[in-house]
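Appendix B. Chain record.
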Amino acid sequence: MRTYPTDETVDVVVVGTGAGGGPLLARLAEAGLRVVALEAGPNFDVTDFVPDEAEGTRVNWMSERISGGEAPTAFGPNNSGRGVGGGTLHWGAFTPRPDARDLRLRSEFGVGADWPVDPGELTRYIEEVERTVGVSGPTPYPWDEGREYHWPAVARNAPADVVADGCAREGIRTATAPAAILTRDHDQPHYGRRSRNLNFGSIHQGDRSDAKATTANTYLPAAVAAGAEIRPDSTVHGIELDARGHVSAVVYTRAGLEVRQRCATLVLAAGGVETPRLLLHTGLANSSGAVGRNFLAHGALQVWGRFDAQIRGYRGYPSSVISEDFVRPTGVDFAGGYLIQSLGVMPVTYATTLVRGGGLWGQELMDALDAWQYSVGVGINGECLPSERNRLVLTDEVDEFGVPRAEITFTPGGNEEAIDRHAARTLTGILEAAGARETRVLARTAHTLGTCRMSADPAEGVVDPDGRSHDIPNLWVCDNSTFPSALSANPCLAQMALSLRTAARMLASRAA
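C-alpha cells predicted for this chain:
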C-alpha cells in the first residue's frame, strides 16, 4: 500500500471507510488523486470474524452514546460499525432498491422532504454498485419487471418459507429478497476469491467466507490498488482551517499519538452520529443550525409467532423474503409506506429485542427464549419523516479523545405511529395465516440518518445536493447523515450509490 507523509498536502482525506467512504475513495484514487482514508477501528482479517454474538461486537461502535426521547435508539451492536469496512462489516446485506416515489415524498403527500437527487441517476449508480459488490436477487422482480440481477437469488431459510406461505394466504406478493450475498464463487478484482453463500445466520458478526459484500472486500482493495492509503486505528477529533476559512488539515489520534494530516479537501463519511458529532465539536459547517437536527430512524417493528414445529431461524441467510406491496398501500392514514422482510435472528439479539421492544423480563422472558427455535419473525423497514424535535446534541461528558459524547433524541411522530399500527395488523395476520399459535409485537427502530441533510437551500440543510458543505467549499459529507428523509428501503445500497455520485461531482468540480 502506498503511504503519504503527514506533512504533505494530499488531495483528499476521507474519514470513514464504510458505505459512504469506500466507493468514493476508490473512485477518487482511480482518477489519480492522492487520497488517505482514516478509520477509527482496526483492519480485520476475515479469520477474525466468529459466529459468536459476544465476541462479534468487535466490529461494532461500542463507545457510549446517550439515547433519549420516547423511543430511544439502540446503539452498541446495532446501527454502527467500527473497523476497515465500517458499518458494512456488520450489516445484514439486505439490499432493496429505494422506490423512486420515496425521493419525492413532499411532492406526493405534502409532508417530509423531497430529495434534490434525480431518481433515474441514483438508479444508474445503484445498478453499478450491485454489479461491483455482487447483489443476488430474483429476475424478474415482481415490483419492477425490467430489473435484472447478475447473481441468482439466495436460498431461503425456514422462516422465509413460513412468511411466504402466510403472505400467499393473505394475498400478499413476495419474492426472494435482493441481498449483497454471492450465490456463485467470484474473483473480486484486486481482492481475490470470494466464496458463494454458505448459509450462515451470523453475518451480523462478520462473514468469514466473504460471500457477504463489504467495502473491505470490494471498493477498498480497489482503492489501495489505485494508490490510496488506509490508516486504521485513527480517530479524528479535530479539523483545522486556513485564513480563508477552508479546511487545511485533520487532527487524529493513532497509537496514543496526535497526528495532523494536511489536505486540500476533506470528506466526512463517519455516519449519522459521528459526522454531526465532529462538526458540532469543531463548530463547523453549521450556519443553518441544521447539524444534528432531523435525526431519522426507520420504523423496524417486528412481530414474532410461535409454531408447533421447530423452525431454527438462526440458520441460513436471515432476511431472504421480501414484499414491497406496502410501499404505497391504499386507504391508509399515513404518508409513504414500508417494506416487509422475513427475519432470522441469533439468540442474544432476540433476547435483547424481547426486552427492549416487548418489555419482557423474568420468567416471561425465559419462556419466550425457550420457544426461540419454534419462533418465526417478520418485520418492516418503514418511512420516517424529518422532525425538529428528533436531533443529536453534544453532552458535557467527553470520551477518551476529548470529544463530547452525543445524545440522540428520537420520538416517533403521528406518521410513524400510523405506519406501525398498520404494519402490526398486517404482520400479525401473516403469521396467523401461516399457523402461529401465538404472536407478539415488538417495537423497534433501525439506522441513523438525516443529521446533516442535503438541501438546495443553504438555510435548510448542511450540504448541497452534491454533498458539498454550504459553508466550506472544500468540505464534503458522504454518508447517510445527508438523507433528507428515510426512504422505505434499507440505506446501505442507496448510500454506496450516493458515494459514487458524490465522487463524480468532486471530480467534475476539480475539472471546472
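Further analysis of this model is presented in Appendix C.
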